[in-house]
From TrEMBL:
Protein's name according to its UniProt entry: Methylaspartate ammonia-lyase
Length: 413
């Protein structure tokens, strides 16, 4: 006779189990890499019993995922492990095989970072006898640069090692110099796509990227009087404010490729939620974004990437849980903990989605001919890190992971 199914853990217990298990998984991944030097963690793992990872993902350590993982490790109380990832980012800035201007690539080769130029991910194609590298991965997205800076700022807070603060300034100096576009609505553009020496400029402007840039510029401004940081924060914030659509109670995702025309069709969960915790002093005026996400993005007990989603996006469900907690809506976050815990793979990472595949409605790059950006049922570093941040109540956009300012402002009626 089969044993009865194990009932799901109560929400509070699920949140605690989620945090502890995911922290252990991240710590184990860092500890498994030899030495005490810089590392970059692989973003995806093969699903148990599934196919091997696609060649383009097999060695890939995305900077965004690693920045989240490092911040999550600080929230776990493991600053030494976070520091190894931060050292990997510093290596990416200072030891690029071509650039010497302060940027990072979107991804690096997973593993312990060797001496010399930091290796990029790629794969050998036996039929053609050629080495290939993904054009997105070798490029530089503005938001990823800002997230790398947010990691370094968080590690600087925990270590007081000036290298991290200085390198965060180098990264944000690159954003300030290379990506600001003054044509209205003025903002920081998407970045650069493709291989050196002449990657393609991406002129669209992203709400999400400018949220990231605002948070990093503002944080840097706490440590000095460099006018670039105040100016950069003001520019990014004005753009984010302009993307708010009061008639609908939501943020648009940004502009189209021309950098001028608003892209009001799609809705992205991260662009809808992140402003509430990155710009907490305006959160009360934007709280209708929570109603928008619930009515447009809710699916399967969690949240999907885009409006009318085709499945749960684990990473975004963690984001929603964090923002709901920050906005004083803990009761709405509570049902999400058992759902997130149920996404845990045997390795300890969380699956990117419980579905075989979910769509985002977005394209990976300018050479895409279809909306080819998907998430798959694979254990995912980024989803795991966001679950930790949510369970810990740690705001990655604020010094010290602060949530109090957001909740206090949001609760003033």
């Amino acid at each position: 006779m089969a044993a009865p199914p194990v009932p799901p853990a109560p929400p509070d217990a699920a949140r605690q189990q989620l945090r502890e298990g995911a922290c252990q998984a991240l710590s184990a991944r860092v500890g498994a890499l030899p030495g005490k030097g810089p590392v970059m963690l692989g973003s995806y793992e093969p699903a148990p019993g599934g196919e091997p990872l696609p060649a383009a993902l097999r060695q890939s350590a995305f900077v965004y995922d690693n920045a989240l993982a490092g911040i999550a490790l600080i929230a776990c109380g493991q600053p030494a492990a976070a520091r190894r990832i931060a050292d990997g980012v510093v290596a990416g800035v200072t030891r690029d095989r071509h650039y010497h201007d302060g940027r990072v690539r979107n991804a690096y080769r997973a593993g312990a970072v060797p001496d010399g130029p930091v290796p990029l991910p790629g794969w050998w194609d036996e039929p053609s006898k050629k080495w290939f590298e993904d054009r997105y991965q070798v490029g530089t997205a503005t938001g990823n640069v800002a997230w790398a800076a947010l990691l370094l700022l968080a590690v600087y807070e925990s270590t007081q090692d000036r290298r991290y603060l200085d390198t965060a300034g180098t990264l944000m100096g690159w954003i300030d110099k290379q990506t600001f576009a003054s044509e209205p609505p003025a903002a920081f553009i998407g970045g650069f796509f493709g291989h050196e020496p002449a990657p393609q400029r991406q002129g669209w402007k992203s709400t999400e990227h400018n949220v990231d840039a605002y948070a990093a510029f503002r944080w840097l401004g706490r440590y000095g009087n460099d006018p670039r940081w105040r100016t950069g924060a003001d520019r990014a914030r004005r753009f984010v404010e302009a993307m708010w659509q009061p008639g609908e109670g939501r943020f648009v995702i940004g502009t189209r490729d021309d950098g001028r025309t608003l892209n009001g069709g799609p809705s992205a969960l991260d662009a809808s939620l992140w402003p509430l915790i990155a710009v907490p002093e305006l959160a009360n005026g934007w709280r209708r974004a929570l109603d928008w996400t619930r009515s447009r993005h809710a699916v399967g007990g969690g949240y999907g990437f885009n409006a009318s989603p085709d499945g749960v996006w684990t990473e975004g469900t963690g984001q929603a849980a964090l923002v709901l907690r920050a906005m004083g809506r803990e009761d709405e976050a509570r049902p999400l903990w058992p759902l997130l815990l149920a996404q845990r793979a045997p390795s300890g990472y969380l699956y990117a989605t419980p579905e075989r595949r979910i769509r985002t409605g977005l394209q990976i790059g300018p050479d895409s001919t279809t909306d080819d950006f998907y998430y798959y049922h694979l254990p995912h570093l980024g989803a795991t890190a966001w679950a930790i941040l949510a369970a810990a109540g740690w705001n990655p956009f604020q010094p010290g992971g602060r949530q109090a300012d957001t909740a206090n402002v949001a609760n003033k009626e």
